[in-house]
């Protein structure tokens, strides 16, 4: 990580706390590893990302329907999907400083090889042979690589017996497979069609998480697209393109991400082809989203295991088959982080006393900006506040607004810049005379006088 990038991450984490995007989880008790809480501005940004995704992938299409399934599912779901037996990370402990590190990450950071999917024996050998050092204390004294389960377990009922073990879901995908027939029978969709879901997933991630990049509790936006096997290549390309369009829709800059195809030995047991959308985070180029061709592995496994028929009947060709699946998978929290990194800008800007200083501005795409319009009376004088509150009441039904009258106008502009508010509407004493306000543009800082009667239309056009 370069010094510049290290600073950038520190700046983003500190801004996130200062302005109410993200707070460390359970902070007053010293925190809880890899948990974070979304604050007043953060929850708006997160909701905007989820709503934009739902609109883009569900509401605006005829071929995708939604689902909101229970987090807790019958354990047989996870036995069948392969998670109980195989969902684990290989970890090594540094004997000198006790740091616990993911073996594949240790190898990939030190050598130019892909280690995901390698056996623990091969990982241990590679680490020894290449004298890989501990990133924390720089010693070379690791335990052998060992597998650790990633699923959180709990118990249903009063007794903590093995037979009562249930898991917090580690992905949202399985609920779409388990409900495939319910959705098909209730909607009469024809293949190709998809089921989409947004919801929490849980993974017992032990290694440190780079802020909200890797957390134990996170949200996924996943979509299972059911197809006829012969069409898989066509739909894989189609969904790769849709995912690119989505990134453009929320304003993630093209130069900041790339698409990487998995090598054969990196593929999950169920996948024939997978690509990762990788974003250039300040701490390295890492997975933002995944796109996988899952074959018909999941539906077939659930059919075999549950005894329930998972076939689709193609009436046109009078043929029954188990559909294949293309799965675009998105992390809400990683989208949030990429949006923060993408938006973070420092600019030289003039101050009130004629000097210049650095202005921090979050240039979020207007689709996802947490607050769209801030209403700022120039002073707290009663008649001005009253007028400004009327402006707020007029705008609040159309746009996500914030009313702010504390501190100087300069400080308030800077605060709105730091949460990425596209437009600030300032109410001054002249407003009382001419029924007009000043609208300031976040990016250009240009100010324009707009008549109150035209303000809603003016803003609608600007968005
Ligand atoms: P990684 O290799 O980084 O652990 P993964 O390949 O295991 O990720 P998937 O199982 O493909 O991830 O999950 C789909 C998406 O869910 C990821 O692309 C990512 O956006 C998000 N995601 C997965 N694990 C986490 C986590 N621990 N914290 C936050 N988001 C996550």
Description:
It is a single chain. By secondary structure, this protein is of the alpha+beta class. Helix 2 packs across helix 11, helix 3 crosses helix 10 and helix 5 runs parallel beside helix 6. Helices cover 34% and strands 28% of the residues. It has three domains: 255 residues, BirA Bifunctional Protein, domain 2, CATH 3.30.930; 62 residues, Herpes Virus-1 (2-Layer Sandwich); 92 residues, Rossmann fold, CATH 3.40.50.800. The two termini are 37 Å apart. It has a seven-stranded mixed β-sheet. A hairpin with a 5-residue loop joins strand 18 and strand 19. The longest helix has 20 residues. The site of adenosine-5'-triphosphate has 15 residues, from strand 11, strand 14, strand 17 and helix 11.
Which quaternary structure do these chains form? single chain
Distance between the termini: 37 Å
Mean pLDDT: 93
Strand content: 25-35%
């Amino acid at each position: 990580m370069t010094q510049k990038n290290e600073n950038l991450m520190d700046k983003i984490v500190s801004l996130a706390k200062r302005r109410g995007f993200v707070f460390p989880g359970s902070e007053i008790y010293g925190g809880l590893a890899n948990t974070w809480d979304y604050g007043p501005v953060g929850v708006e940004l997160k909701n905007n990302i989820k709503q934009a995704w739902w609109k883009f992938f569900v509401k605006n299409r005829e071929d995708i329907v939604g689902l909101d399934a229970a987090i807790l599912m019958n354990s047989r779901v996870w036995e069948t999907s392969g998670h109980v037996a195989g969902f684990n990370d290989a970890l090594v402990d540094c004997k000198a400083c006790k740091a616990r590190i993911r073996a594949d990450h240790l190898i990939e950071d030190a050598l130019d090889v892909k280690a995901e999917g390698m056996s623990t024996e091969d990982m241990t050998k590679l680490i020894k042979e290449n004298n890989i050092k501990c990133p924390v204390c720089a010693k070379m004294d690791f335990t052998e690589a060992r597998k650790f389960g990633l699923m959180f377990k709990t118990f249903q009922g009063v007794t903590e017996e093995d037979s009562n073990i249930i898991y917090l879901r580690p992905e949202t995908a399985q609920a779409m497979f388990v409900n495939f027939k319910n959705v098909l029978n209730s909607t009469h969709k024809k293949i190709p069609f998809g089921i989409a879901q947004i919801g929490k997933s849980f993974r017992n991630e032990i290694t440190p998480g780079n802020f909200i990049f890797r957390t134990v509790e996170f949200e996924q936006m996943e979509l299972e697209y059911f197809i006829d096997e012969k069409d898989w290549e066509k739909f894989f390309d189609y969904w790769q393109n849709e995912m690119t369009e989505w990134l453009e829709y929320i304003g993630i800059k093209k130069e900041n991400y790339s698409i990487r195809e998995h090598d054969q030995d990196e593929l999950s047991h169920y996948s024939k082809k997978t690509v990762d959308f990788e974003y250039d985070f300040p701490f390295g180029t890492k997975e933002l989203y995944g796109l996988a061709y899952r074959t018909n592995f999941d539906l077939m496994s659930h059919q075999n295991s549950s005894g329930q028929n998972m076939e689709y009947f193609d009436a046109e060709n009078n043929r029954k088959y188990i559909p294949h699946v293309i799965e675009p998978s998105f992390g809400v929290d990683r989208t949030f982080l990429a949006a923060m990194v993408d938006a973070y800008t420092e600019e030289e800007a003039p101050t009130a006393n004629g000097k210049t200083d650095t202005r921090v501005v979050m240039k979020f795409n207007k689709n996802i900006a947490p607050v769209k319009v801030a209403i700022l009376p120039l002073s707290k004088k009663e008649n001005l506040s009253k007028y400004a509150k009327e402006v707020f009441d007029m705008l609040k039904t159309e746009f996500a607004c914030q009313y702010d009258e504390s501190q100087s106008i300069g400080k308030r502009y800077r605060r709105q810049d730091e949460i990425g508010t596209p437009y600030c509407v300032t109410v001054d004493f002249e407003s009382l005379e001419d029924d007009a306000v000043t609208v300031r543009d976040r990016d250009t800082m240009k100010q324009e006088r707009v008549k109150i009667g035209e303000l809603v239309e003016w803003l609608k056009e600007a968005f």
